[in-house]
Specification:
The protein has 259 residues and is an alpha/beta fold. It has one domain (2-258): Rossmann fold. 36% of the residues lie in helices and 23% in strands. It is built from nine helices and seven strands. A seven-stranded mixed sheet has the order 3-2-1-4-5-7-6. Helix 8 (200-214) packs antiparallel against helix 9 (221-231). It is elongated and about 55 Å long.
Protein backbone atom coordinates (compact mmCIF):
# COMPACT_ATOMS: atom_id res chain seq x y z
CA UNK A 1 0.00 0.00 0.00
CA UNK A 2 2.81 2.41 0.85
CA UNK A 3 4.60 1.75 -2.42
CA UNK A 4 1.38 2.04 -4.42
CA UNK A 5 0.62 5.32 -2.69
CA UNK A 6 4.01 6.69 -3.74
CA UNK A 7 3.53 5.44 -7.30
CA UNK A 8 0.04 6.89 -7.77
CA UNK A 9 0.51 10.06 -5.73
CA UNK A 10 4.15 10.67 -6.63
CA UNK A 11 3.55 14.25 -7.85
CA UNK A 12 1.89 15.05 -4.52
CA UNK A 13 4.88 13.64 -2.62
CA UNK A 14 7.22 15.78 -4.69
CA UNK A 15 5.05 18.84 -4.02
CA UNK A 16 5.15 18.12 -0.29
CA UNK A 17 8.93 17.76 -0.14
CA UNK A 18 9.32 20.96 -2.17
CA UNK A 19 7.12 22.73 0.39
CA UNK A 20 9.29 21.36 3.20
CA UNK A 21 12.42 22.58 1.43
CA UNK A 22 11.05 26.13 1.40
CA UNK A 23 10.73 26.05 5.19
CA UNK A 24 13.85 24.03 6.03
CA UNK A 25 17.24 25.42 7.03
CA UNK A 26 19.62 26.18 4.19
CA UNK A 27 21.48 23.07 2.97
CA UNK A 28 20.51 20.65 5.75
CA UNK A 29 23.14 18.01 6.42
CA UNK A 30 20.99 15.33 8.07
CA UNK A 31 17.28 14.49 7.71
CA UNK A 32 15.32 11.97 9.79
CA UNK A 33 12.37 10.08 8.34
CA UNK A 34 10.37 9.22 11.47
CA UNK A 35 8.38 6.06 10.83
CA UNK A 36 9.91 5.49 7.42
CA UNK A 37 7.96 2.39 6.40
CA UNK A 38 9.12 1.21 2.99
CA UNK A 39 11.06 4.46 2.58
CA UNK A 40 9.03 6.24 -0.08
CA UNK A 41 9.39 9.46 1.92
CA UNK A 42 13.10 8.84 2.48
CA UNK A 43 13.70 8.53 -1.25
CA UNK A 44 11.62 11.64 -2.01
CA UNK A 45 13.56 13.62 0.61
CA UNK A 46 16.86 12.38 -0.84
CA UNK A 47 15.82 13.67 -4.28
CA UNK A 48 14.78 17.03 -2.91
CA UNK A 49 17.72 17.57 -0.54
CA UNK A 50 20.73 16.54 -2.60
CA UNK A 51 23.74 15.84 -0.45
CA UNK A 52 21.87 15.42 2.83
CA UNK A 53 22.23 12.21 4.81
CA UNK A 54 18.87 10.45 5.22
CA UNK A 55 18.27 8.63 8.52
CA UNK A 56 15.31 6.28 8.11
CA UNK A 57 13.82 5.17 11.44
CA UNK A 58 11.30 2.35 11.69
CA UNK A 59 10.59 -0.59 13.97
CA UNK A 60 10.27 -3.04 11.06
CA UNK A 61 13.52 -4.61 9.88
CA UNK A 62 11.69 -6.00 6.83
CA UNK A 63 10.57 -2.55 5.66
CA UNK A 64 14.00 -1.05 6.27
CA UNK A 65 15.55 -3.87 4.23
CA UNK A 66 13.19 -2.97 1.38
CA UNK A 67 14.35 0.63 1.56
CA UNK A 68 18.01 -0.41 1.59
CA UNK A 69 17.40 -2.57 -1.48
CA UNK A 70 15.48 0.16 -3.34
CA UNK A 71 17.93 2.96 -2.63
CA UNK A 72 20.54 2.25 -5.36
CA UNK A 73 17.90 2.08 -8.09
CA UNK A 74 16.50 5.40 -6.88
CA UNK A 75 19.92 7.04 -7.05
CA UNK A 76 20.47 7.18 -3.30
CA UNK A 77 24.09 6.23 -2.58
CA UNK A 78 24.78 3.96 0.38
CA UNK A 79 26.83 6.62 2.16
CA UNK A 80 23.81 8.96 2.17
CA UNK A 81 21.43 6.44 3.77
CA UNK A 82 21.39 5.22 7.33
CA UNK A 83 18.63 2.87 8.50
CA UNK A 84 17.83 2.66 12.20
CA UNK A 85 15.59 -0.05 13.57
CA UNK A 86 13.87 1.30 16.66
CA UNK A 87 10.49 1.04 18.35
CA UNK A 88 9.77 4.70 18.99
CA UNK A 89 7.01 3.79 21.43
CA UNK A 90 9.81 2.48 23.64
CA UNK A 91 12.60 5.03 23.20
CA UNK A 92 14.14 7.49 20.77
CA UNK A 93 17.27 5.99 19.16
CA UNK A 94 20.75 7.32 19.70
CA UNK A 95 21.42 9.32 16.53
CA UNK A 96 23.26 12.51 15.73
CA UNK A 97 21.23 15.75 15.76
CA UNK A 98 19.26 16.39 12.58
CA UNK A 99 18.32 19.55 10.69
CA UNK A 100 14.98 18.31 9.33
CA UNK A 101 12.58 15.66 10.62
CA UNK A 102 9.76 14.24 8.50
CA UNK A 103 6.80 12.35 9.98
CA UNK A 104 4.38 11.39 7.22
CA UNK A 105 1.28 9.40 8.26
CA UNK A 106 3.23 8.09 11.23
CA UNK A 107 2.71 10.40 14.19
CA UNK A 108 -0.88 9.30 14.86
CA UNK A 109 0.29 5.68 15.20
CA UNK A 110 2.39 6.34 18.31
CA UNK A 111 0.97 5.45 21.70
CA UNK A 112 2.10 8.84 23.09
CA UNK A 113 2.56 11.30 20.21
CA UNK A 114 3.28 14.22 22.56
CA UNK A 115 6.23 12.31 24.04
CA UNK A 116 7.52 11.55 20.56
CA UNK A 117 7.23 15.20 19.56
CA UNK A 118 9.37 16.15 22.55
CA UNK A 119 11.91 13.52 21.45
CA UNK A 120 11.97 14.96 17.94
CA UNK A 121 12.32 18.48 19.32
CA UNK A 122 15.36 17.39 21.33
CA UNK A 123 16.85 15.59 18.30
CA UNK A 124 16.71 18.68 16.08
CA UNK A 125 19.49 21.22 15.86
CA UNK A 126 18.44 24.74 16.95
CA UNK A 127 16.42 26.22 14.11
CA UNK A 128 15.70 22.76 12.72
CA UNK A 129 12.31 22.00 11.19
CA UNK A 130 9.81 19.19 11.67
CA UNK A 131 7.29 18.44 8.91
CA UNK A 132 4.21 16.44 9.87
CA UNK A 133 2.02 15.13 7.04
CA UNK A 134 -1.35 13.42 7.41
CA UNK A 135 -3.84 12.03 4.91
CA UNK A 136 -7.10 13.87 5.55
CA UNK A 137 -9.26 11.18 3.99
CA UNK A 138 -8.74 7.88 2.25
CA UNK A 139 -8.12 8.10 -1.50
CA UNK A 140 -11.17 8.01 -3.75
CA UNK A 141 -11.16 6.23 -7.09
CA UNK A 142 -14.69 5.16 -8.02
CA UNK A 143 -17.60 6.94 -9.69
CA UNK A 144 -20.72 7.10 -7.55
CA UNK A 145 -22.61 4.80 -9.93
CA UNK A 146 -20.52 1.78 -10.86
CA UNK A 147 -23.15 0.19 -13.07
CA UNK A 148 -23.42 -2.64 -10.56
CA UNK A 149 -24.81 -2.59 -7.04
CA UNK A 150 -26.17 0.44 -5.21
CA UNK A 151 -24.58 3.82 -5.96
CA UNK A 152 -22.27 5.21 -3.28
CA UNK A 153 -20.29 2.05 -2.43
CA UNK A 154 -16.97 3.83 -1.92
CA UNK A 155 -18.54 6.49 0.33
CA UNK A 156 -20.10 3.78 2.52
CA UNK A 157 -16.77 1.94 2.74
CA UNK A 158 -15.04 5.15 3.82
CA UNK A 159 -17.74 5.83 6.40
CA UNK A 160 -17.27 2.39 7.93
CA UNK A 161 -13.49 2.83 7.93
CA UNK A 162 -13.84 6.21 9.66
CA UNK A 163 -16.10 4.68 12.31
CA UNK A 164 -13.38 2.11 12.94
CA UNK A 165 -10.85 4.90 13.49
CA UNK A 166 -8.92 4.46 10.26
CA UNK A 167 -6.43 7.27 9.65
CA UNK A 168 -7.79 9.38 12.53
CA UNK A 169 -5.55 12.24 13.57
CA UNK A 170 -5.89 15.57 15.38
CA UNK A 171 -4.89 19.07 14.39
CA UNK A 172 -1.21 18.80 15.31
CA UNK A 173 -0.60 22.52 15.82
CA UNK A 174 -1.34 22.62 19.61
CA UNK A 175 0.62 19.39 20.12
CA UNK A 176 3.61 20.89 18.31
CA UNK A 177 3.50 24.04 20.38
CA UNK A 178 3.25 22.11 23.66
CA UNK A 179 6.38 20.21 22.64
CA UNK A 180 8.29 23.48 22.27
CA UNK A 181 7.95 24.07 18.53
CA UNK A 182 6.89 27.25 16.80
CA UNK A 183 4.45 26.34 14.03
CA UNK A 184 5.54 28.27 10.95
CA UNK A 185 3.21 26.94 8.23
CA UNK A 186 0.22 24.74 7.57
CA UNK A 187 -1.09 23.79 4.16
CA UNK A 188 -3.61 21.38 2.65
CA UNK A 189 -2.57 19.72 -0.60
CA UNK A 190 -5.14 18.31 -3.03
CA UNK A 191 -4.50 16.06 -5.99
CA UNK A 192 -7.12 15.07 -8.56
CA UNK A 193 -6.87 13.25 -11.87
CA UNK A 194 -9.46 12.05 -14.36
CA UNK A 195 -8.78 9.56 -15.74
CA UNK A 196 -6.66 8.16 -12.94
CA UNK A 197 -2.97 7.50 -13.65
CA UNK A 198 -1.50 4.03 -14.17
CA UNK A 199 -1.35 2.09 -10.94
CA UNK A 200 -4.62 3.53 -9.61
CA UNK A 201 -6.49 0.30 -10.35
CA UNK A 202 -4.01 -1.72 -8.31
CA UNK A 203 -4.16 0.80 -5.48
CA UNK A 204 -7.99 0.78 -5.51
CA UNK A 205 -7.97 -3.01 -5.56
CA UNK A 206 -5.61 -3.19 -2.58
CA UNK A 207 -7.61 -0.63 -0.60
CA UNK A 208 -11.04 -2.12 -1.33
CA UNK A 209 -9.65 -5.59 -0.69
CA UNK A 210 -8.67 -4.45 2.79
CA UNK A 211 -12.16 -3.04 3.32
CA UNK A 212 -13.65 -6.37 2.22
CA UNK A 213 -11.49 -8.31 4.67
CA UNK A 214 -11.68 -5.93 7.62
CA UNK A 215 -15.30 -4.79 7.50
CA UNK A 216 -17.22 -7.83 6.29
CA UNK A 217 -19.31 -7.70 9.47
CA UNK A 218 -20.12 -4.00 9.05
CA UNK A 219 -20.99 -3.72 5.36
CA UNK A 220 -24.35 -4.69 3.89
CA UNK A 221 -24.59 -7.99 2.03
CA UNK A 222 -25.20 -6.32 -1.33
CA UNK A 223 -22.11 -4.11 -0.86
CA UNK A 224 -20.02 -7.18 -0.08
CA UNK A 225 -21.32 -8.78 -3.27
CA UNK A 226 -20.38 -5.68 -5.29
CA UNK A 227 -16.91 -5.68 -3.75
CA UNK A 228 -16.50 -9.32 -4.75
CA UNK A 229 -17.31 -8.39 -8.34
CA UNK A 230 -14.83 -5.50 -8.29
CA UNK A 231 -12.07 -7.68 -6.84
CA UNK A 232 -12.60 -10.61 -9.26
CA UNK A 233 -9.92 -9.75 -11.83
CA UNK A 234 -11.42 -11.99 -14.53
CA UNK A 235 -14.69 -10.05 -14.62
CA UNK A 236 -15.06 -7.14 -17.08
CA UNK A 237 -16.36 -4.85 -14.30
CA UNK A 238 -13.36 -5.58 -12.05
CA UNK A 239 -11.23 -2.70 -10.84
CA UNK A 240 -8.22 -3.73 -12.89
CA UNK A 241 -10.33 -3.70 -16.06
CA UNK A 242 -12.11 -0.39 -15.56
CA UNK A 243 -11.38 2.73 -17.59
CA UNK A 244 -13.58 5.09 -15.56
CA UNK A 245 -11.45 5.35 -12.43
CA UNK A 246 -10.61 8.82 -11.16
CA UNK A 247 -8.33 9.88 -8.31
CA UNK A 248 -8.71 12.35 -5.47
CA UNK A 249 -6.85 12.77 -2.19
CA UNK A 250 -6.03 15.55 0.26
CA UNK A 251 -3.22 15.81 2.79
CA UNK A 252 -2.41 18.43 5.39
CA UNK A 253 1.14 19.35 6.32
CA UNK A 254 2.45 21.28 9.30
CA UNK A 255 5.94 22.79 9.43
CA UNK A 256 7.31 23.65 12.87
CA UNK A 257 10.69 25.03 13.92
CA UNK A 258 12.64 24.22 17.03
CA UNK A 259 12.81 27.44 19.03
Amino acid sequence: MLDLDAEVFGPLLDELTDWVRRHAPEAPRRIADVGAGTGTGSLALARRFEGAEIVAIDRSAVLLDRLRAAAPGAGLAAERLRVVQADLDVAWPSIEPVDVAWAASSLHHFADPDHRLRDIHAALNPGGVLAVVEMDALPRFLPDDLGIGRPGLEARCHEVAAQAGANAHPDWRPHLERAGFATIAQHTFTVEASPAPPGAGRYARALLGRFRAAFADRLAADDLDTLDHLLADERPEALLNRRNLTMRNTRTAWAARRR
